[in-house]
Write a structure and sequence with these properties.
The complex is a heterodimer of chains A (1003) and B (96). The radius of gyration of chain A is 38 Å and the shape is elongated. By secondary structure, chain A is α+β, with helices and mostly antiparallel strands. In chain A, the strands form 12 sheets. In chain A, strands 8, 9, 10, 11, 12, 13 and 26 form a 7-stranded mixed beta sheet that branches. In chain A, strands 38-39-40-41-37-31-42 form a 7-stranded mixed beta sheet. Chain B has a single domain, classed as Folate-binding fold, CATH 3.30.2270.10. In chain B, the strands form 2 sheets. Chain B has a 4-stranded antiparallel beta sheet, with no helix packed on it. A two-stranded antiparallel ribbon of chain B has the order 1-2. The longest helix of chain B is centred in the middle third of the chain and has 9 residues. Chain B is globular and about 40 Å long. Classes of the chains: A alpha+beta (1003), B mainly beta (96). At the A-B interface, helix 20 and helix 24 of A face helix 1 of B. The complex binds zinc ion.
Chain lengths: 1003, 96
Amino acid sequence: MSECRGKGGVLINRNLVVNFSFDGRSYSGFAGDTLASALLANGVHLLGRSFKYHRPRGLLAAGSEEPNALVTVVRGNEARSVPNLRATQVEIYAGLVAHSQNRWPSLGFDVGAVNDWLSPLFPAGFYYKTFMWPRFAWHRWYEPRIRAAAGLGRAPGGPDPDSYAQCYAHCDVLVVGAGAGGIAAALAAAGSGARVILCDENGALGGSLLDERANSQGGSDAAIWLRTALTQLAALPNLTLLPRTTAFGYFPHNMLGLCERITDHLATPAAGVPRERLWQVRAREVVLATGAIERPLVFPGNDRPGVMLASAARTYLHRYGVRVGSRVVVLAGCDAAYGVALDLHAGGIGIEAIADVRTGAHLVAPAAIAAARAEKIRVVERATVLGTSGRLRVNSVSLGVVAADGSVSNAGTLPCDALLMSGGFTPSVHLHSQSRGQLQWQADAGVFVPAAAAENERSVGAARGLEGLQQALEDGTQAGLTAAKACGLTPHAYSARIAVQEYSTRGAPGALAQPGARTPAKAFVDWQNDVTTRDLQLAMREGFYSIEHIKRYTTTGMATDQGKTSGLNALAIIAGSSARQVPEVGLTTFRMPYTPVSFGILAGYDRGDQFDPVRRTPMHACAENLGAVFEDVGMWKRAWYFPQRGEDMHQAVARECRAVRTGCGMFDASTLGKIEVVGPGAVEFMNRLYVNSWNGLAVGRSRYGVLLRDDGFVYDDGVVARLADERFHVTTTTGGAARVLGMMEDYRQTEWTDLKVWLTSTTEQWAVIAVQGPRAREVIAPLIEGCDLSAAALPHMAVARGTICGAPMLLFRVSFTGELGFEINVPADYGAAIWEAVRAAGQKYDIVPYGTEAMHVLRAEKGYIIVGQETDGTCTPDDVGLSWAIGKSKPDFVGKRSLSRPAMLASGRKQLVGLLTADPHVLLDEGAQVTATAGQVAPMKLIGHVTSSYRSEALGRSIALAMVVDGRARQGQTLYVPMPGGDLPVQVTAPVFYDPQGARLNG
Amino acid sequence: MLLIHCPYCGDRPELEFSYGGQAHIARPSKPESVTADQWVEFLYLRSNPRGVHAERWRHVRGCARYFNALRDTRTDRFIATYKAGEAPPQQSGSTP
Ligand SMILES: [Zn+2]
């Protein structure tokens, strides 16, 4: 291990060496290291290339706010590759394989860096401006190449083999962030009896408690307090501790989404353990102890590897014993930077100078300067940075001094291998803001702090602009007690105290002063999106004023960064350039997630077979045994067709259709929706709901019912049988069952409360076997007892009870094929047995099972519509030829008033017709358009569309149904269906192609 | 996910509910006697307030009952939920 690893490091275990690889090279670190700290310990400062200019980038930060060091971790194979992980949060394990991103062929030599030399060509909005011409080139040329060259990481190379868990949790108090404030809040609330969940995004709890300089005994007051507190937390039975768990989203009514990373830090995860778990936590009270994020300073060349946030250097030193350099220059925009310099100095790191960039004398604490000078550290006051140098790592910084009149003079160049900067700290208000909590501008600290909360939440400590550990402890304690009290608990006194040297974290956001009027290039505001001061100013010169527009035009604060490090500096620069105050510029919306979450936890268990429930009919296995091919209809698996040996779909469907027209077929109709409407108000309920009149329907008879919405458009249809005076058996379309019941319940519960009526879904109680064809009666007769099947006793649309093979049966004489037909309803558990019995009985009549495709062909031959295929939610009963169903003498039914609206009566509505192609072998495409004349060029005048199209076995040719403007008046005309190969002439016919008199129904 | 108080079952997560549009839109008792314009208003015209909205919800994956709610569209906060057929509760002040 190199000289970069010094003494100390509270998180690492020097007895456990961990080997890992980065970009194909092997390195070693210690257990407890992050990838970032381990690479720094090995002297690796170059970790990535920037998004747009491919500039070399190192680590800016030490925590989740890191915008540059995004890496891909590959575990085993490409399917387990995870891009865009922040190296600062990747915990190393034996065998870890990580890669840098956005570079080719290698980090040290990246061809894309030519973008950097060409950077004058890549200003804000570059993509919008440049790739506009010629139009066709965008998809073919520009976009694929831009996407290949840009982008953050690469998607995994296969389906994710890992599993992901999801859970709901409820608690009294959820505390986000286990730093000083969060731990104090959790102890105070849990000590008062509250059920508490405490989560933290890092593996090691403690936040900035881990960043204090060790005293002569080798520990710090903060570390000692933390150890005791963690022991107390672990002992509390009413507290759930969730390390490596990011609260990424704040949803309404105090529900927060937490992403717990369970196995990513383990060398060999146990089998069956989910990789991550989504916690959806409903909390009565929330404490946000999310801390504050240090702001970078904005000056030319501020993005070189080795230029880093000051607090990050302190973190690397105290947590991991890692020295970020040996000759360090510290740029102080706040007093806290002095604390860092003094800590590093005490750790044996050479401090070349502290350059204090504050120009308002009142901002500077003389005590900090004095403390530095007492240690013989050079302090340059009223400093600014004119530039830096160093190709793959910073090697010098050029300082300037700002005179009282604002002019800048050169103050010489200092050699350095690390340049630390602190512009002050920005409270991390993301979650508060996501919860729609208000923010308030605190002018003296130059930050937004949480104001009025919209939910039961409160921010504590640094997250609300307080400074120092002791304040955070006290504030957290108070918040924990208040939250417990809000949950109806008696607060249990608790107090905590730490003695540490505190420095102010207040600074002023914005860019550092530069000589002359010209804005320097390459003074970065947003490291992740490569946005510079000049980009922001250019956007404003081009007329962008609103912060939301500037954000999108320049991309500042977008992607995974969400303005963590960049937001406030961007606002201050925009404010300064447009003579506005920061609050006038306003804030862009903080979007969730706070840090990226995997698609895996969002999908959770809903993958593969568990993506959607599957509904199978009671006869499903029978159809499988017969070799059925299934289709999905809603959640149902329906037998589509039953191919015999060597048949294709067309051959199978033709055979099935032939059987139904000439002999007998059987069909599983169990998926039809079934609703029982029962009660003294049942008849009136049906009268008010359906277009039909139900008064005259005798018990033991059924009728084709049509249901509209109140807007007059067809909503559903189905056969409705009257089983008793006050009992209807209503069938619906397969897909419409749930929504029809919902609509019925809506009217029953909210409009017609005068009616005593009950509604029950019976879809899954009945198995339904349709037996259709001229031989249907002969097939079923031997199986049935207790009911007369003769045409006289059981005419078309009659319903009877009886038994079949001894099972109770409800028998419908109905037909959706135009043939003599029966639908045998038996309790679901009898379905399979009765199916087999009917099939056996039908053998001597060559009975054929048929599927939904043959059913569609047969019904189309008869012009029977399918709601949702012929209709599209804008069809009246008259449009689809169903006016005959309407009960003319009824004063009202749902949709009736709409049918007399002028637009419903006007000519020019699309009407259901049949279409026959001039060439009987040509099959029209469903969805194809219809025109009145041939040879039109786009935009054509379209007068209709094809809704159903099949090869009719009975007619020996193709047939189609269509909705055509004034179609009924066009019968006999020739229209055209424009297709890529030319216009297809079609003749308009009535929609009934087969047995128009319906004689076959009455056999 | 909203937390919704079903007047019959108590607090339940939004997953269990379906939304039912604006509340207190009475269907004309004699539709044939209203003008086409009045009917169109009944069918299609809905308020879209920035503030308190009376709306229908159905506890479809629970008791299956429809009920009404007053919800502030700015904050998603429910001011009250009440049974269908009941008058909306009086509100004190305009902002919850
Ligand atoms: Zn309920």
